[in-house]
Specification:
By secondary structure, the chain is α+β, with helices and mostly antiparallel strands. The protein has a domain of 31 residues. It contains 2 helices and 2 strands; from the N terminus they run ααββ. The chain has a two-stranded antiparallel sheet with strand order 1-2. A hairpin with a 5-residue loop joins strand 1 and strand 2. The longest helix is centred in the N-terminal third of the chain and has 18 residues.
């Protein structure tokens, strides 16, 4: 058990020392930079009761739009 802990600590130390001087190469990892979410375009949909609901009416609230299609 002590041998296993020593090996893990040594491996972590080598990884830390080996990578401390070099910047990560994100291109080789195929990592894409974070793109912040964009606002949804304004739209209006009829509700089940026939009233038209606009996305702008829910500004500042979390909205889940559930829809289905039958082809």
């Amino acid at each position: 058990m002590m041998h296993r802990i020593t090996v893990v600590v040594l491996a972590l130390a080598l990884l830390t020392v080996g990578g401390a001087g070099a910047a990560p190469d994100f291109a080789s990892l195929r990592v894409q930079p974070y793109q912040p979410p964009k606002p949804a375009p304004g739209f209006a949909l009829p509700g089940l009761d026939g009233k038209v609901m606009r996305l702008g009416d829910f500004r500042g609230k979390v909205v889940l739009v559930f829809f289905w299609a039958t082809w």
